[in-house]
Amino acid sequence: MRFRLTPRETSFYDMFAASADNIVTGSKLLMELLGADASARAEIAERMRAAEHAGDDATHAVFHQLNSSFITPFDREDIYNLASSLDDIMDFMEEAVDLVVLYNVEELPKGVDQQIEVLARAAELTAEAMPNLRTMSNLTEYWIEVNRLENQADQIHRKLLAHLFNGKYDAIEVLKLKQIVDILEEAADAFEHVANTVETIAVKES
């Protein structure tokens, strides 16, 4: 790590950790959605909406701090990209839950549970990694594992699409379910974007 003669604004680390912890909350709500009947889904969606708003607040706090700080712990562009990618994850998870409710989906197709399990694991890894930004230590395994999980999510997504187009579902149901599984795949991509940004930061700081 480069030696610095100037102090650094450290509150960013706490903000990133809070954002990641909130994403874990979102992933748990996704898991809860899997086992919920239709009557309970609206309430889960409401809690997910509250978590998404909390994520927005955390992101805005990072941007405000970024605009008001003369000295930052690492490149401003990387801070912006990291905060934005964390926010994207919550946005996609909230959108997926909302669509399940809005579309009155009776039963999610087999394989969605695997998508959500991948997201939950990526959320845990991300929450564990964010505090390590302070020292830039123990991060390599994090971004390697998240990239592996994203590849796994791609495979699950392709199998889900094949299942949706096998003739079992009518055309309207296919459109509804495809949009949901596509949004969950975008959440997996967003986790990878976070991991890639962390890798970029670590390389610059080494």
Automatic annotation (TrEMBL):
<dbReference type="InterPro" id="IPR038078">
    <property type="entry name" value="PhoU-like_sf"/>
</dbReference>
<comment type="similarity">
    <text>Belongs to the UPF0111 family.</text>
</comment>
<dbReference type="InterPro" id="IPR052912">
    <property type="entry name" value="UPF0111_domain"/>
</dbReference>
<dbReference type="InterPro" id="IPR018445">
    <property type="entry name" value="Put_Phosphate_transp_reg"/>
</dbReference>
<protein>
    <submittedName>
        <fullName>DUF47 family protein</fullName>
    </submittedName>
</protein>
<dbReference type="Pfam" id="PF01865">
    <property type="entry name" value="PhoU_div"/>
</dbReference>
